[in-house]
Design a protein that fits this description.
Layout lengths: L5 H13 L3 H4 L9 H4 L7 H21 L1 H22 L9 H22 L2 H24 L14 H16 L17
């Protein structure tokens, strides 16, 4: 039976519920330290929440449904690492949103699909995975260079490309971590007997 994407679904539900007291959960300079932990659940507006929730739900279902261990490890790495990186590099910046986690999930989905495609000799899957990684890199580069969001309408807030890059790094770290052989599988010849 295929694993259910319980963790990513729970994060989306929490983000939707957090939309009500969003301002009280987001990070801003001088806020209580615990708000670093809730900052990714808070969003600037409904459009921001919609795009983040859709991305996390779609990418989370893809990744957590196929590689649950790696996906959950990636989420566990990303949730504290993203806001910590943002506050260390941009101490005067307010921060909200799940977009960094969406980049984490996109990276796990792309690496897992690429590995599965190579293992199975599926050139189309491998190509789609590489295209997803290229799009993620292009999106992050565009937002870095322009300061504009690609999907959500950023009125009164701006995208944080650092969160996207750190999210992608968390996904990569989880897929390269040396544990088990059930997630992000390698070629059969490289699996332990």
């Amino acid at each position: 039976m295929k694993p259910r994407p319980a963790l990513t679904s729970a994060l989306v539900v929490a983000a939707v519920l957090a939309c009500l007291p969003g301002a009280a959960l987001g990070w801003e300079p001088g806020a209580a330290p615990w708000r670093l932990l809730t900052s990714q659940l808070a969003h600037w507006d409904g459009d921001h929440l919609l795009w983040d929730a859709l991305a996390v739900l779609i990418l989370g279902c893809w990744a957590e449904g196929r590689w649950p261990g790696r996906t959950r490890l990636a989420i566990a790495i990303a949730l504290p690492l993203i806001p910590l990186a943002v506050v260390l590099v941009h101490p005067d910046m307010a921060f909200r949103g799940l977009s960094g986690l969406a980049c984490t999930l996109a990276t796990v989905a792309a690496i897992g699909t690429w590995r599965d495609g190579r293992r199975d000799g599926d050139a189309i899957a491998s190509t789609i995975a590489l295209l997803l990684l290229a799009l993620l890199l292009g999106k992050t580069a565009y937002e870095t260079l322009t300061g504009d969001a690609v999907f959500a309408t950023a009125e009164g807030w701006w995208p944080v490309p650092l969160a996207h890059a750190v999210g992608a790094l968390a996904g990569w770290l989880a897929c390269t971590a040396p544990f088990g052989n059930t997630s992000c599988p390698r070629k059969p010849s490289s699996l332990p007997a």
